[in-house]
Amino acid sequence: MLGSVDSCVLAGLQVRPIHVEADIGAGEVKFSVVGLATTMVKEARERVKSAIRNSGLEFPGRSLTVNLAPAELRKSGSGLDLPIAVAIALARAHRPAPERTAFLGELSLDGAVRHVDGVLVAARGLRDLGYERVFVPVEDAAEAALVDGLEVIPCASLLSTVQHLLGAEAITPATHGALPAHAPGDVLDHDLREVHGQEEAKRALEVAAAGGHHLLMTGPPGAGKTMLARCLPGILPPLELAEALEVAQVRSLLGDLAPGRPLDWARPFRAPHHGVSMAGLIGGGTGLALPGEISRATHGVLFLDELAEFQAPVLQALRQPLESGWVAITRSGGSVRYPASFTLVAATNPCPCGWSGDGIRTCRCTPAAVDTYQRRLSGPLLDRIDLQVAVRRLGLEQLSSEPQGEPSSTVRQRVVLARRRQLARQGCLNAQLKPARLRRLAGLAPACRLTLERWAVNRGMTARGYHRAWRVALTSADLDGSDEIQEHHVLEALGFRLQDAAA
Amino acid sequence: MAVVGSRRPSPYGEAVAEQLALELARAGVIVVSGLALGIDAAAHRGALNGGGVTVAVMGTGIDVIYPSAHTVLAEAILAAGGALVSQFPDGTTPRRHNFPARNYTMASLSDVVVVVEAAEGSGALITAEAALDLHKEVMAVPGSVFSPLSVGTHSLLRDGAGLVQNARDVLAALDLGGEVLDDPLAPPKGLGFELRRERDGILSHLSDVLALNAAEVARKLQLPVAEVLGRLTALELEGAVKRHQGGYVRALRRGKERA
């Protein structure tokens, strides 16, 4: 007696279809799983056996072989429990494999179907592979139902699933399209209105938000760098559907989606501690790498506080994703590729004690120590940061007399308009514009070019820096609603290049 | 003459030290300083630019240039006929407790010690005290009352140190006044600085000593911060303002040479 169903395993965001076959033969009582299964999958035997028995179904008292095809692909994860059990049940019932249908779910010993990570990723991948129906754990059904063109059958227990398949008792498919309404984000946790003063840094945030530029804030402790950084998601437009799905996919892989509300329109904000490991930040793990903080921050903000305290190799590893917007990680189990298209906001003290340049407390660091500290922020990384701004600490009495800022919602309106201009003109944000397209789309008037060149000569700005300043100038023009880059746009862009000012 | 002061001066202090050393070197005065960062380096540089002789009194062995970034400066001092002087054995590395002794030597090698910008407890004040012990003349350059770097110099002035407003004040203390009063190079008043003519109203809101950032200037002028940042950058490109401590200060530039 042979039964079979389809399932899949995940390699990062890629879906590999698996054909699960169960054969009940004559011979001594045994239960073996073949097909390059990892320990986690081999343990499925015990769960499947108990689940079948405790569901009131009969476990075959004869030789039972389960094959996971293709045989050369390593399979891990507990999502194969349900397909194995269903294949056995279909073998006993002499039923053919349901067509263009896949199963995914972990079993508990009592036969309940439990959550597995990555259901959204699996559902999208299966849909793209031509599947029409998926059976998923009931608590992951909302996640799978985000994918259109796919019927989602929520499975509460093995018994109900099998009865549905045998036509005894139908399960109602999960309704698709239950997308939560766009929350306009009127109530923000961090609103620019609450930040007194710091207009220069706020302007830098606005430019960063509008053009997708990376930003570094330098200033003493307590100057409000963290507060400012947390305001950035609030001045970004809400996620587009495709972006939200990509964010949800990464979170799905990590089992981090809110139950019942899988899709979130808010921009991610990730703030890993400076002790974070390479695997934690970039992604990693054994076998196949899981996404790291940079992928969780995709389409949102990655905030690195105390930038100089991060391990140098970890910062070095940021360079490639900063340029390309994705990251490829190779581990023993293979290579995976994750999105990593984030806006980097970094903050650092100006010196080890933090008080250099503070008007209120004096710095006690030796000039050599300050030098070493600043050199730890590697040149190549700083060269990829478009905007740098010094944040100054205000005394308490000054703080209360400083004017309140504009609310985030007002700033966001300008950001949205500027982004719309960019997308209409070039289909991407200014920060992602390649030099050749930049030259073609946003030519510089001679006066502007001269200013940039003078700065480059005086300050030793690199060619990369030159193009970065040009892009920021373009964003400044977009915020102005100006079709041409004017000299004051270029000058503003250069005003945010503190890295060159040391000459 | 010894010129001493903060290792982290304001652009004002740096400009004063450099200009003072330049004019005095031109008048034939030997400028003594300590080869340290900040005021010391500015004084050596000024003396060299003035075509004069300058002496660096080191707190390390004669073969240890500290900070190492000043190797080029030390070579320039020697090339111009100046001297590197050290009382410590070869190979002595920078040690905190050696510097007061060095300061004493600096004072003893000079007839006048001029302090430019010294915060409370600054090493420059040790030099000034040593000079008093040795019955040498101590003089100080006043600074902004808002700046912590003026605390040391102003307390010296209150205690009777000579006021330095220009090179001639120092020359008078050195009893060289008569010669130089006829010097057509000597500016009539103050140091030979020329403030850039106002074109856009931003400069008058900036100080020589205390840094203001674009946001603070923008508020005074009631202008958008983006515009002010751009205009400050334009002034920076022209050399009229300088970045300092997370903000901007007015850059002091020497006036036209009248030779």
Protein model, in words:
- The complex is a heterodimer of chains A (about 500) and B (about 260).
- Chain A is an alpha/beta fold.
- Chain A folds into 3 domains: about 1-165, Ribosomal Protein S5, domain 2 (2-Layer Sandwich); about 190-430, 3-Layer(aba) Sandwich (Rossmann fold), CATH 3.40.50.300; about 435-503, Helicase, Ruva Protein, domain 3.
- In chain A, about 40% of the residues lie in helices and about 15% in strands.
- Chain A has a 5-stranded parallel β-sheet with strand order 11-14-17-10-18.
- In chain A, helix 2 crosses helix 3, helix 7 (about 200-210) packs parallel to helix 17 (about 410-425) and helix 20 (about 465-480) packs across helix 21.
- Chain A is elongated and about 85 Å long.
- The model of chain A has no long low-confidence stretch (mean pLDDT about 85).
- Chain B contains 10 helices and 11 strands.
- In chain B, the strands form 4 sheets. In chain B, strands 1-5-6-7 form a 4-stranded parallel β-sheet, sandwiched between helices.
- In chain B, helix 5 (about 125-135) links the parallel strand 5 (about 110-115) and strand 6 (about 135-140).
- The relative contact order of chain B is 0.14.
- The model of chain B is unreliable at about 180-195 and about 255-259 (pLDDT under 50).
- The interface of A and B includes residues 219 and 368 of A.
